[in-house]
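Practice problem: predict the structure.
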Amino acid sequence: MIALHHLALRTHHVDRLLAFYTTWLALPIVRDERPRSVWLRVEPAAVLMIERADARDPAIPHGTRELLAFAIDASERPALRARLVEASLLEGETEHTLYFRDPDGRRLGASSYPLHLP
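Answer:
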């Protein structure tokens, strides 16, 4: 079976994106190679890499519907929702998922949807 190893997000603003993901998703830093990259733990064996982009990297398309969704416990949803509303970041929601964007415009989700995978 294949498992998630890492996700890499390229940005022209490493520190800004790092502050967002550590503040809003409470992802801990596991490797700091700034200004080139920072790794954040997502799962016991997976990381989110924030990497410095170069001039050839295109911007995130405005209004993109691509989604990077993170799991959240249903009991934590109301507090996160309140924080997102207070910061005017909540873009939408369903019964299980809160939608918002990171500073580069990536669409994110915090979801408590029960996957019940076989």
